[in-house]
Specification:
The protein is an alpha/beta fold and 300 residues long. The chain has eleven helices and 13 strands. The chain has helices spanning 60-64, 89-93, 108-116, 119-125, 140-152, 167-173, 189-196, 201-212, 231-243, 259-264, 279-290; strands at residues 3-13, 21-26, 47-50, 70-73, 76-79, 99-102, 104-107, 128-132, 156-161, 179-183, 217-223, 248-253, 295-298. A nine-stranded mixed beta sheet has the order 7-1-2-8-9-10-11-12-13. Strands 3-6 form a two-stranded antiparallel sheet. It has a two-stranded antiparallel ribbon with strand order 4-5. α9 crosses α11 (279-290). The protein is globular.
């Protein structure tokens, strides 16, 4: 039985493709984007997020931890990440859910049961299901099985992806995917390596192949001030997209929504001093990209 790790199933989503959708977030991502607002999605396995404002200091988690990885120091709860097995016992016994287990092992049947609950909304709004992450391509067999089941029921499918996977993986899911929401983060390879941890060569190469295969593709481009919002990158990106005969581009303004999660995961947030782009700047970028014949929308 094929299973996968899901960290969220979001109902009534309106920003992840056409119509009203259910977005299934799969865990695991090979990129390390500085601006990622779902840092809990990066690692493939389960993780624990600690919410200190919910904590009663009751010590339940300390008592049940088999590794003695949780302890009290200076009146606050601390965790030894090296010892933690992410078994989830602390979250199970926490009375206020201050310890949250992120990620759940699920079968295709279990995910489909959640998807099917809202099929009437998909039909009425011309919506469907979007598989996101993390990076859904890191769980290819699980994703493929879900896509096939959705297509068998006539449910519109979208895959929100960075495109970082082998062509063997991507080519297998093309027929089951009605729409690719494809991220372009930076067209310069060195800048891409710096801010995401990986080269963009495979990503851009896969995008070219998908376009050649006639896949339906919407480009998504996050706009991060000081990183990829300069005119040179905007123009080069627009030229690249038009060369593929792809028309629709969503430019997504950077925001701080997930910044507080980093501390709760014991990680450093690297863009704490970066502000969201102004509405004026987003309109300027939209206008610039439209000069190349693109249909550019601000937001999802």
């Amino acid at each position: 039985m094929i299973t996968g790790i899901v960290f969220n199933i979001q109902k009534y989503s309106i920003h992840d493709g056409p119509g009203i959708r259910t977005t299934v977030f799969l865990k695991g991502c090979p990129l390390d984007c500085w601006w990622c607002h779902n840092p809990e999605s990066k690692k493939q396995g389960l993780e624990i997020i600690y919410w200190p404002q919910k904590c009663l200091g009751c010590g339940s988690c300390i008592n049940v931890c088999p590794q003695k990885a949780i302890y009290m120091e200076g009146g606050s709860l601390e965790k030894n990440k090296e010892l933690c097995l992410r078994c989830g016992k602390c979250s199970k016994f926490c009375p206020t859910e201050a310890m949250e287990l992120v990620g759940k092992q699920m079968t295709i049947d279990q995910v489909m049961k959640e998807i099917e609950k809202d099929k009437i909304f998909y039909d009425e709004s011309k919506g469907g299901v979007t598989f996101s992450g993390g990076e859904p391509l890191t769980q290819p067999e699980f994703l493929y099985g879900l896509l096939q089941r959705c297509k068998g029921q006539g449910i519109h499918t979208a895959v929100d992806t960075s495109g970082l996977a082998s062509w063997e993986v991507l080519s297998k899911i093309i027929k089951g995917t009605d729409l690719f929401l494809y991220d372009i983060k930076h067209l310069d390879d060195e800048a891409h390596k710096k801010y995401t941890g990986v080269s963009n060569q495979l990503i851009l190469g896969n995008l070219k192949k998908l376009a050649y295969e006639g896949a339906h593709i919407n480009i998504r481009m996050p706009i991060i001030p000081g990183i990829n919002d300069d005119d040179e990158n905007i123009v080069n990106t627009a030229l690249f997209i038009t060369s593929l005969n792809i028309n629709l581009v969503n430019i997504l303004p950077y925001h701080h929504t997930g910044a507080d999660k980093y501390g709760r995961l014991g990680e450093l947030y690297r863009l704490s001093d970066v502000q969201s782009p102004s509405d004026e700047r987003m309109l300027q970028i939209q206008k610039r990209m439209k000069e190349f014949g693109l249909n550019v929308r601000i937001g999802g």
